[in-house]
Amino acid sequence: MNDTLNNSDAMSFGGGGFGGLGNFGKSNAKVYVKSTEGIKFDDVAGEDEAKENLTEIVSYLKNPAKYKEIGATMPKGILLVGPPGTGKTMLAKAVAGEADVPFFSMSGSEFVEMFVGMGASKVRDLFKQAKEKAPCIVFIDEIDAIGKKRDGGNLGGNDEREQTLNQLLTEMDGFEGNTGVMILAATNRPESLDPALTRPGRFDRRVPVELPDLKGREDILKVHAKKVKTSDAIDYNKVARMASGSSGAELANIVNEAALRAVRDGRKAVTQADLEESIEVVIAGYQKKNAIMTDHEKMVVSYHEIGHALVAAKQTNSAPVTKITIIPRTSGALGYTMQVDEGNHYLMTKEELENKIATLTGGRAAEEVVFGDVTTGASNDIEQATKIARQMIARFGMSDFDMVAFETVTNQYLGGDASLAASSDTQRKIDEEVVALVKKQHQKAINILNENKDKLHELAKFLYLNETITGEQFMEILNKKD
Question: Is residue 305 annotated as part of the catalytic site, yes or no?
Answer without folding.
Answer: yes
